[in-house]
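Help! Submission page says 'invalid entity' but I think these are all valid:
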Amino acid sequence: MTDGLRVDVDGPVATLTLDRPEALNALTVELKVALRRELERIAADRAVRAVILTGAGRAFCAGQDLAERERPDAAPLDEELRERYNPIIRALRSMGQPVIAAVNGVAAGAGASLAFACDLRIAAAEARFVLAFGRIGLVPDSGATWFLPRLVGAARAAEIALVGDPIPADEALRIGLVSRVVPAGELMTEARALADRVAAGAPLALALTKNALERSWSIELDEALDGEAKLQGIAGASADHAEGLAAFREKREPRFTGS
Ligand code: T3D
């Protein structure tokens, strides 16, 4: 591991750890390339049914590595976003497996955006979110302006993005930015327990659910109803649906295969 990303696959759960603790896991080109590559690889791996994204040391991720940005050969900002950041966000949103952000510490700039783009967020009590862009004269990116209003509503999103005060974990829980806050020492155990529960679900149905939730933001109710009927047709024809019915009938846990 020289690119700053640690990948651990244990049973049906892949854990991706941003691992540059000396720079609060700030995102270098190498780390972004590795993260995109691993997300795309995992998306195609049917054996992986849930993903945990976390950070090593005291931070989740401090966003763009600012030392690298000051290098004369750094790519222009818009190019860096199009070529490196946006594909990571798209990969997180398009992969069928649910992704859990285990936010162990500060999540700043694009590091906060990464957490926002995950399907579920649980945080250590010490975690905080910092929309740090304004302090360096930039606009929120990597999906932050899209995710934030959807996660916490327009008024709070505006306050977070325009005022820029750090959001501590308890506040993040209160406004719905994270769904659980746990003591730091329990974060990974909790994240794994959550991942195991997700991984026990029917993979196709979960992927379709993730897709339907995503689409719901840009369509009217009528289209959503039609869409649900279509997706239910697909899920209903799956072997996993038959297995779910059999398990119910036989009063046992289902064993889903993803087919
Ligand atoms: O390509 C592009 O630029 C486009 C994409 C942009 C997306 C973005 O993410 S822009 C936003 C970039 N991120 C930031 O502006 C956050 C900068 N960091 C901070 O504001 C603070 O470090 C934190 C609020 C995250 C944490 O504060 P604190 O007091 O807990 O820690 P610290 O002392 O500031 O940092 C500890 C070390 O990490 C320190 O190094 P040192 O002095 O011990 O050698 C610091 O320089 C380093 N560090 C923190 N953030 C970054 C970083 N090094 C490189 N890049 C960073 N982003």
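Support: the input was valid. A stray whitespace character was the problem, and the output above is from the cleaned input. The pocket of T3D is lined by residues 23-24, 26, 62-67, 69, 77, 80-81, 85, 106, 108-110, 130, 132-133, 136, 138, 141 (CB under 6 Å).
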